[in-house]
Specification:
Elements lengths: L9 H12 L5 E3 L14 H14 L2 E6 L4 H17 L5 E6 L4 H13 L15 H15 L5 H18 L13
Helix pairs in contact: 1-2, 4-5, 4-6, 5-6
Length: 180
């Protein structure tokens, strides 16, 4: 392999991978946009060598557009696969993004209550917004009531829905339609 990229010493290839794959900014990921760099598809050896650099050394923002937790499900699947195959720890920040969608938030809360996805806690830059504080309390409540069946918890969650609708009328819509 002399004279080819794979013939270079591993340390030099790793430096090249870092130059090509690392970002100074968090990489935004949505349910619709979860693509890997094409370099990771060059060949099996390059993927094996570079995937841990890409996922292990970058930060990712999982953008929950419309409070849809599908992106988190994809991130958890990717995390499990990377941990099993490459011993890589994948970390990401959960970023709820408007538009407000009660149906999606309720699905996310249901999954968080079951433990199949992570909940959400306000970050310092969102903690002051009453709407995000309420949503943070919703997730904390679902976590605190994890021992109860969802059928009992959902009644409490619906009370928060009315509070959110009072803070922003956009929350009054269910499934994109007015009314609840």
């Amino acid at each position: 392999m002399t004279g080819t990229f794979l013939g270079l010493p591993g340390e030099l290839r790793n430096r090249i991978y870092r130059l090509a794959l690392l970002s100074d900014l968090a990489i935004p990921v949505t349910a619709q946009h979860f693509q890997e760099p094409t370099l990771l598809y060059a060949c099996k050896q390059i993927r094996h060598e570079a995937v841990s650099i890409y996922y292990g050394e970058n930060e990712f923002d999982a953008l929950h557009v419309g409070f849809d937790a599908t992106v988190q499900m994809k991130m958890l699947e990717k995390k499990d696969k990377l941990c099993d195959e490459h011993k890589v720890t994948l970390e990401w920040f959960i970023c709820p993004v408007v538009p407000r969608n009660w149906s999606n938030l309720l699905t996310w809360l249901t999954r968080a209550h079951r433990g199949s996805v992570l909940g959400w806690k306000p970050t310092p830059d969102t903690a002051g917004a009453s709407e995000f504080a309420i949503i943070g309390e919703l997730f904390a409540t679902c976590d605190d009531l994890r021992d109860l069946p969802w059928e009992r918890v959902v009644g409490i969650v619906e009370r928060f829905h009315r509070i959110l609708a009072g803070v922003s009328g956009d929350w009054a819509a269910v499934n994109g339609e007015d009314g609840s």
